[in-house]
Design goal:
- The complex is a heterodimer of chains A (about 350) and B (about 525).
- In chain A, about 70% of the residues lie in helices and about 5% in strands.
- Chain A is mostly helical and about 350 residues long.
- In chain A, a hairpin with a 5-residue loop joins strand 2 and strand 3.
- Chain B has about 525 residues and is mostly beta strands.
- In chain B, the strands form nine sheets. In chain B, strands 1, 4, 5, 34, 37, 38, 39 and 41 form an eight-stranded antiparallel beta sheet that branches.
- In chain B, strand 4 and strand 5 form a beta hairpin.
- The relative contact order of chain B is 0.16.
- The chains are: A mainly alpha (about 350), B mainly beta (about 525).
- Chains A and B meet through strand 4 of A and strand 18 and helix 2 of B.
Chain lengths: ~350, ~525
């Protein structure tokens, strides 16, 4: 049997075309390669050999039958070899997948334990204390955020009332002092249109009081807004603090991931090396099988020549089965005619299997 | 042997004025017990007051049977047009010779004649309690109501004062404790601009009092209560600077129109008599010596009559005449006028005081020409001459009882030598009596008339007189009777001539001890 090497290589290197879903082997390309080889062999064992005659015809017919048989054995051997190669490649691929698959791991810190999942996820598991603290901080932050979105007017009013409560005693003292001064000066009962129905001093006092009230209102507004900003900042701070343990868990996970990568890298490298070595072995096996096939082809050709003769013209050498002796015991020895296929031919095939390791 | 006559001379009798307060015994004979229709003349003698001349010719027609003109003011506009406003018989008039009734706002009714009329900023304002104030713009005879501001009515005060560039008012029927002031230079704006008020309820030093009058004096605003006086400074800017300067407790003003300024003093009638605020300011709250202390009891009794008769004392009027140097205080109900000579106070701080009767003025005002005009039931009269209209009036002088420094001896009046300045054709009666009697022995005599020398007239071949410039009468009267103390009096019917008592010489025989 003759194998089209280029077509076989193409079949191996272009697995994506007409790939069997079960074997991963490009059967079409392989058959095409085999068919082309058969034709080529057929051509090589053509009936148009020089010096043919009646005996030659028979000789030629025998040669054709031998060639056919030999070719059929090659095809079978190649198909079996291909299946075996496919299975070996799949086995190596599975081994590579198993060798490079993610191995879940967990990281444990004082804040809790983080576990990864085979699908690439992770679970940040906080300790109960940390979870409680996180809940507390989150709740407090929520309360502060509630203040941020609270009624500014009411907050301003509350602050204003507090400021006025602080100012009122002094204002009362000032009013009493003013009253004393006014009545001592006989101006307690002064009412003036110029000063809105009161005396200049009372007007000035009331004006100052109103200015203080306005200032207090403005200050209260500013303070309310400031407090909201502070609440926002505090809330943000508390909220940020609430997630610090998780952040630390993530940081620990990152560190754990780096450490796990050390082990994973060796694993992946081993798997890769294993796959590469497997591929190399498979390739070497294919090459050895190819070499075996070529040697067997040569051997069969020599055997055919021995049996059927070779050469033409002056160089023609008569084979054991050539001429008159055609159909003798030798013919039976090689299985010509009705004789069964000799064992030694069968052994060639078996040897080929063993060569391929099938 | 005949006893020696004791010669007693009373020079310028009564020139210290009336003194009815001190004990008559031992009193200086220069004090008089009665000096009616008298003034202290320029030479310090008791002389006859001047009479009056009727100015108004249609008084009877416009005044009817009313008390006459009870308020009067002379207004001189910026255009130098003089308009005299007067009020009486529930009407307001202009003019002096002919009283022309002013046009009042439609529906305006006058219920009383207690107007206080002031001139301010080329306008004339009329204030009276329970009456909407009136305004004469530029001296117009058509009176208008003051403008209202935002529904606010100007104060219907009984008192109004023009001072410090604004009007001041007080004494409303419903509010007697607040002083109001108008906006600056706007006497008709009482609720806008720089107008204002001050409630004095907490200022009175002796609790509650009622504001009666206002005055400006010595750059102070004086608020007169009935029993207290409040002295304010800073009235130039009352809204911001009006400040209590002093309070005077126990002395107030009981008659709005009794307040008169003499330039140095402010004279007013209080419940203690006639007071001088200038002295009050100097003496602060020290005990006061009123300028009427020599006639205090009599004066206050007459004042009390005024209060009881009218229910208020707006009928009491006063005037200060710098020309005549007297302060007149008329008490219409009593038909008496007290005349205080303001030239020189006496040692006890009082002023020399005389009384006027039969004149019965109801209003006073000094015109710009220094003529004293008075309100009268006949209209407007002017002070001058020596007849009350066409009528003679009587001068009465009576001394206090005199013991001639011999209180324990009988006195026998032998002869009176009188020296009278003026008094031409004046029927005169000399009165004398003993021992506090009011029944006098009288001796009547009449001075002869003489022509007074004329100045600047040719003496040659003319009727020019060669007598003295003023008549001097020296009648001599023989006395009768006896007693321990002697009272002397002179009654003279003033008849178009001045009459001053220069001296009374008395020749008396000092008898045995009683």
């Amino acid at each position: 049997m003759a194998l089209n090497q280029s077509a076989f290589n193409q079949a191996l290197t272009t697995p994506m075309q007409n790939v069997s879903p079960t074997t991963g082997f490009n059967q079409t390309a392989f058959n095409q390669a085999a068919q082309t080889g058969a034709n080529t062999v057929s051509g090589m064992l053509g009936m148009t050999g020089a010096g043919s005659n009646t005996g030659g015809f028979f000789n030629g017919l025998l040669g054709a039958g031998v060639d056919y048989y030999a070719g059929q054995q090659d095809i079978d051997a190649a198909a079996q070899f291909g299946q075996m190669s496919n299975q070996a490649a799949q086995q190596m691929g599975q081994q590579a997948v198993q060798g490079t698959s993610f191995k879940p791991f967990s990281v444990t810190t004082g804040a809790g334990t983080t576990t990864t999942t085979p699908t690439g996820g992770f679970n940040l598991g906080l300790s109960p204390e940390q979870a409680a603290m996180q809940a507390q901080l989150t709740q407090q932050a929520g309360g502060l955020f509630g203040g941020v979105t609270g009624d500014v007017g009411q907050a301003s009013q509350d602050i204003y009332n507090q400021i006025r409560a602080i100012q009122n005693p002094q204002e009362q003292r000032d009013q009493l002092r003013l009253n004393e001064e006014l009545f001592a000066r006989g101006r307690g009962g002064v009412s003036s249109a110029q000063y809105g129905g009161q005396g200049a001093e009372q007007f000035g006092y009331n004006q100052a009081q109103q200015e203080a009230m306005n200032q207090a209102a403005f200050q209260a507004r500013q303070m309310a807004l400031g407090e909201q900003e502070q609440q926002l900042a505090l809330g943000q701070g508390l909220l940020g603090q609430a997630y610090v343990p998780q952040q630390q868990q993530l940081d620990a996970l990152t560190a754990g991931t780096d450490i796990s990568n050390i082990a994973g890298t060796g694993q992946r490298l081993g798997a890769q090396l294993q796959a590469e070595l497997g591929g190399t072995g498979l390739e070497a096996l294919l090459r050895s099988y190819e070499s075996g096939l070529a040697g067997e082809q040569t051997q069969r050709n020599q055997l055919v020549d021995l049996l059927l003769g070779s050469g033409q013209g002056a160089n023609a050498v008569e084979g054991l089965l050539g001429g008159s002796s055609l159909g003798g015991s030798l013919g039976a020895a090689v299985g010509v005619g009705d004789a069964p296929t000799p064992q030694w031919i069968k052994d060639l095939g078996n040897d080929a299997k063993s060569w391929l390791g099938l | 042997m005949a006893q020696e006559l004791k010669h007693v001379t009373i020079s310028a009798p009564g020139f210290l004025g009336i003194n009815t307060q001190d004990s008559p015994i031992g009193l200086d004979p220069a004090y008089a017990s009665i000096a009616d229709n008298c003034v202290i003349d320029q030479l310090g003698r008791v002389g006859a007051r001047q009479g009056y001349k009727e100015v108004t010719t249609n008084g009877a027609a416009v005044l009817g049977t009313s008390r006459g003109i009870e308020a009067m003011v002379e207004f001189i506009s910026r255009n130098n047009v003089t308009t005299v406003f007067s009020a009486g018989n529930l009407k307001i008039f202009t003019g002096t010779t002919t009283l022309v009734e002013c046009t009042l706002p439609v529906g305006y009714t006058i219920l009383d004649n207690d107007w206080k009329i002031v001139s301010f900023n080329n306008d004339v304002y009329f204030f009276q309690k329970s009456h909407a104030p009136l305004e004469s713009v530029g001296g117009s005879t058509t009176l208008t109501l003051l403008t209202t501001s935002g529904g606010h009515q100007p104060p219907q005060g009984n008192e109004v004062l023009a001072a410090y560039g604004r009007l001041w008012s007080c004494d409303l029927s419903s509010n007697r404790y607040t002083v109001y002031w108008s906006s600056l230079l706007a006497g008709n704006d009482w609720h806008g601009g720089s107008s204002g008020s001050v409630d004095l309820t907490t200022v009175w030093p002796s609790g509650y009092d009622e504001v009666v009058a206002l005055a400006e004096h010595n750059n102070f605003l004086l608020v007169f209560g009935k029993k207290n006086i409040i002295v304010y400074s800073g009235a130039t800017s009352p809204n911001s600077d009006l400040t209590l300067h002093d309070t005077i407790e126990g002395t107030g003003c009981i008659a709005r129109d009794s307040i008169q300024s003499t330039g140095t003093d402010l004279i007013f009638l209080s419940s203690r008599g006639v007071m001088s605020l200038g002295r009050l300011l100097q003496q602060k709250s020290l005990p006061l010596g009123d300028i009427s202390k020599n006639v205090r009891t009599d004066l206050l009794s007459f004042v009390e009559i005024e209060a009881h008769s009218n229910g208020h004392r707006e009928a009491i009027k006063a005037v200060y005449s710098p020309i005549h140097a007297f302060y007149l205080l008329t008490l219409p109900t009593s038909k008496i006028v007290y005349c205080f000579d303001v030239r020189q106070p006496l040692e006890n701080g009082s002023f020399r005081v005389t009384t006027w009767s039969s004149l019965e003025p109801t209003a006073f005002t000094m015109f710009a020409d220094d003529t004293l005009y008075m309100g009268h039931n006949e209209g407007i009269i002017s002070y001058g001459g020596y007849l009350d209209g066409d009528t003679q009036y009587q001068l009465r002088y009576f001394s206090n009882p005199n013991d001639f420094q011999s209180p324990a001896n009988l006195k026998f009046l032998k002869k009176f030598n009188l020296t009278i300045i003026g008094g031409q054709a004046t029927p005169t009666t000399l009165n004398w009596g003993y021992d506090y009697t009011s029944t006098y022995t009288k001796q009547e005599f009449t001075f002869g008339s003489s022509n007074i020398a004329e100045f600047g007239i040719s003496e040659y071949n003319t009727d020019a007189e060669y007598t003295a410039s003023i008549a001097i009468q020296t009648p001599k009267v023989n006395g009768t009777g006896s007693g321990s103390v002697v009272t002397i009096g002179i009654e003279a019917q003033i008849n178009s001539a001045a009459f001053s008592i220069q001296k009374i010489d008395i020749l008396a025989l000092i008898g045995r001890l009683i």
